[in-house]
Amino acid sequence: MPKRLTFLTSMVLAAAMSMPLSAEAQPDADTVLARVNGEEITLGHLIVAKAALPAQYQQLPNEVLFDAILDQLVQQTLLGQEHGDQVPQRVELALENERRSLLAAETLQEIMRVVTTEEALQAAYDEKYADGFGGDEFNASHILVNTEEEAKEVKELLENGADFAATAKEKSTGPSGPNGGSLGWFGEGAMVPEFEQAVLGLEPGEVSDPVQTQFGWHIVKLNEKRKAEAPALEEVRGELSNEIQQQAIEDRVAELAQSGEVERLEVEGVTPDLLSQPELVQE
Fold it and tell me: Chain-centre distance of CA 68, in angstroms?
């Protein structure tokens, strides 16, 4: 009887060794998929390499990507080993910068994850739109011409009593000209910065001095101004998330800088133009 038990135990062990890996032995990031002159390439290396691919490549089937990424890592390893222990200085510096960047990104992701809660979003929304209104909206018209001299002439005509809409129909080269220069209602951020600044500096009924943008020279008239109705929380969720996260990041960086030791050195002979001298870094 004991001999039979021993025999059965041996069969069970042999069968177990031939079975697929158990749940406890499933592949993980440390699972070695290749060795190149003793240097290991793991499943984790492939996963990280895939995550760094451009979006269009990440959409390819994993069956296609697996061998392609593994082949690439093998080839890179073979080529990299050509340097032996003599790593070029610029490569070492690039690796240090990349490590800094990746670790900082990890910290930023954690900060953003922690602060972007439903409670924080609701509080930010309530604070920003407590009065029930959103930002300012403007109803403006403009006359667009090609040169500053033409714009000054238009401004003089208006100062002497010319009707803005009629002048826009006659003088404006913009698509709104036939409509008397009317641009309708728009909010902040809808116009190019120079134009928006001109609008913000006007009271309803006022006309600006000549304003230059990438499109030419403008004479701007602010017709009306109003408050926009407050948007729903879902409409501004992304915007509020960005604001919360940005503020949290700025606060954390300031806190770390204050509690840490940051020393910026003034080194004689070091000037900004040295950035354009890659020869300073050893090949």
Answer: 29
Cα–Cα–Cα angle for 202, 207, 212, nearest 5°?
A: 90
N- to C-terminal Cα distance for the chain?
Answer: 74
Burial 247-282 (b: 16+ CB within 10 A, else e): ebeeeeeeeeeeeeeeeeeeeeeeeeeeeeeeeeee
DSSP 8-state code for residue 28: -
Cα 9 to Cα 17, 20, 39, 140: the distances in Å are: 12, 19, 38, 90
DSSP 208: P
Residue-wise pLDDT tens for the chain (283 aa)? 343 333 333 333 333 333 444 445 799 999 999 999 999 999 999 999 999 999 999 899 999 999 999 999 999 999 999 999 888 999 999 999 999 999 999 999 999 999 999 999 999 999 988 888 888 999 999 999 999 999 999 999 999 999 999 999 999 999 999 999 999 999 989 999 999 999 999 999 999 999 999 999 999 999 999 988 888 999 999 999 999 999 999 999 999 999 999 999 999 999 999 999 988 887 6
Token pair recorded at residue 230: 């407050």
CB 108, CB 249: distance < 8 Å: yes
Assess contact for 177 and 144: CB atoms under 8 A: yes
